[in-house]
Amino acid sequence: MLFQQLGSCTLAFFQRLGRANIFLWAVLCGVPGLIFRLRLLIHQVFSVGVLSLVIIVVAGLFVGMVLGLQGYYTLVDFGAEDSLGVMVALSLVRELGPVVAALLFAGRAGSALTAEIGLMKATEQLAGMEMMAVDPIKRIIAPRFFAGVLSMPLLAAIFSALGVMGGYLAGVGLLGVDEGAFWSQMRSSVDFNEDIMNGVIKSIVFGVVVTWIAVFEGYDAVPTSEGVSRATTRTVVYASLAVLGLDFILTTLMFGEV
Amino acid sequence: MANTKNNLVEARGLTFQFGSRTVFDGIDLDLQRGKVTAIMGPSGTGKTTLLRLIGGQIRPTAGTIHVDGQNVPALSRRALFELRKRMGMLFQSGALLTDLTVFDNVAFPLREHSGLPETMVRDLVLMKLEAVGLRGAQRLMPGELSGGMARRVALARAIALDPMMIMYDEPFTGQDPISMGVLVKLIRDLNEVLGLTSIIVSHDVAETSAIADYIYVLSQGKVVGQGTPDELHHSESEWVRQFMKGTPDGPVPFHYPAGDYTEELLSREEFR
Amino acid sequence: MQNTRLVETSVGVFVAAGIAAFFMLGMKVSNFNAFSDVEGYEVSAQFENIGGLKVLSSVSVGGVRIGRVTSIGFDQEDYEAVVTMTIDHKYNRLPTDTSASIFTSGLLGEQYIGFEPGGEEAFLQEGDTIFLTQSAIVLEQVIGQFMFSKASEGAGE
Q1: A133 and B82 in contact by Cβ < 8 A?
Q2: Is residue C78 part of a domain?
Q3: C38 touches chain A (CB under 8 A)
Q4: pTM beyond cutoff 0.80
Q5: Interface of C with A in 11-30 (CB under 8 A)
Q6: C100 in the same domain as C74
């Protein structure tokens, strides 16, 4: 009995994973066609990226300021408060920028995508489109997916940059760390290829995964109001877990031994 | 299949299983060109499923469905999409795209498929909207429309590409008498003016009888009656008569199958 | 759609802000500038032991960074490590008898190469080799020697 349950759960999981992969493939096939439908893409970048901007800006500034304060109190005990810039910049660029931005993105844009697509399914808009001989994956899903993949690295870069500014405000403005030391130490220790590009790669990976989960959950939702709300919750939970798990794997690969 | 010429839709031995449940069990249907054919039956007999089978959204377990001579389940995706451009479908909820205005909704299939210049698209959309009497509502969003108006907009959209047939999914459900009358008139008129073939799925006997040329009655996966509305009203099958008249008790019992009533009232063992 | 313009403008601003943030990270936060001017001339040096020196470790004179380590190899003839460094073009007046040593910044910090200029008239050029080198101090060896000498002192008494 227990084994049967375990088996059926495993089978259901892999079935869903398989469907998600076939779905991703279909979406990717629809992406090249977007070159001719730039306007569709722009509208989705607006609703996915621009509307997430406020939360990213505010969160970035505050995370940076908190890092500045906490880092200062820790470093000052060792007389190393000049390294504050390094600490703030490295933790933002390598980890917090991509990860926190992706988590916020999953909560803000991911859930909205799932709910929107799920509702379109529940109100037969997707089926209606299919009956009008328009492929909803190409017309509805692909622009949203690509907009998410495009927006995520931009949001993460904005988050990191504002975080550094926040750290600067807290460290230099509030606590009186030497301004020159703050920037110069940061610049000599943060490597462009090692740290910044790896952060960008991370945020692209997170963008793909979060948007993929969001559009798939919406497309695969049970077309009732309960089903859509469940799918929305699942998007946030799965996307957040996937971001954290993948971050561990990517960090091991990138910053382990060269 | 001698009279393929006359039949736009032809189903033979159509079987569809959903999980362990058999929705259709080898049904045969012939839908003639230029006629209004109704498919009726109690709720839950899979009438909507039948439309989705004809539209190729789902595949039957067995059997064939020929639409205009092409076997729908065997078509490639591309050929299916070509066929669908010649089919219109009116969904129960209207299925209007909620982020577009009424005008853009009707223009949607034209912009996607026709490749016509925007000025011609505009003229066509206005013509279609005028046909359903909603030219004045072109700037409204779908959320601002009543249910009946939404269905009329959806109808305008369904005829935008001048299809050869339209499928109506429960067009009369939940409508007030006036919009019901408007819809009945529209379906009949469009069928005649545009030379369409119409398929109506419904359980509203009175309205459907008023416009249908031919009716199939489905129950439990089988065709239990077919004929013109008159023939069905005088059918020798008791079941069909009960359905057409809408009497509460008959071959379809009022009570859900249950054990003996007095026995259950007297027994107390299940509730302490 | 009347707000198409607003939508498109805000998307443009968003993309520009993202790219600007990226450039700020590149220019202001990281050593992107320093990395790009690695163009310079190459010199090499042989060490018995390079300790924890890595590619991209810095090369400095009197505490000023003048270049970076570009590659580390091993010479099978002499059984010594060969370190190739790229020195910025600006610093082209280093005498040929300059000595190179491997130092550690702080007690446990990173290792780097420090140059000590000599007194020759000729200057180092592309492809030259520095002969005067001093290997890294390996902490285990120092401690080992110290303990050994202490032990022998104890035995002598």
Answers
A1: yes
A2: yes
A3: no
A4: no
A5: 11, 13-15, 17-22, 24-26, 28-30
A6: yes
Q: Which of residues 38-67 of B touch A (CB under 8 A)?
A: 52, 55, 57
Structural domain span for residue C100:
40-144
Question: Which member of C11, C25, C29 has the closest CB to residue A45?
Answer: C11
Mean pLDDT of successive 10-residue segments in chain A (258 residues)?
87 90 89 82 89 93 93 85 85 91 94 93 87 86 92 93 92 85 80 84 94 93 91 94 93 75
What ipTM does this complex have?
A: 0.79
Task: Please give the residue of chain A at the shortest CA–CA distance from C8.
Answer: A42
* Pair (C24, C72) in one structural domain: no
- Closest-CA residue in chain A for C13? A50
pLDDT one-digit tens code per residue, C53-91: 877 778 888 888 888 888 888 888 888 889 998 888 888
- Structural domain total, chain C: 2
Whether residues C29 and A154 touch (CB distance < 8 A) is answered with no
3-state secondary structure chain A: CHHHHHHHHHHHHHHHHHHHHHHHHHHHHHCHHHHHHHHHHHHHHHHHCHHHHHHHHHHHHHHHHHHHHHHHHHHHCCCCHHHHHHHHHHHHHHHHHHHHHHHHHHHHHHHHHHHHHHHHHHCCHHHHHHHCCCCHHHHHHHHHHHHHHHHHHHHHHHHHHHHHHHHHHHHHHHCCCCHHHHHHHHHHHCCHHHHHHHHHHHHHHHHHHHHHHHHHHHHCCCCCHHHHHHHHHHHHHHHHHHHHHHHHHHHHHHHCCC
**Does residue C156 belong to any structural domain of this protein?**
no
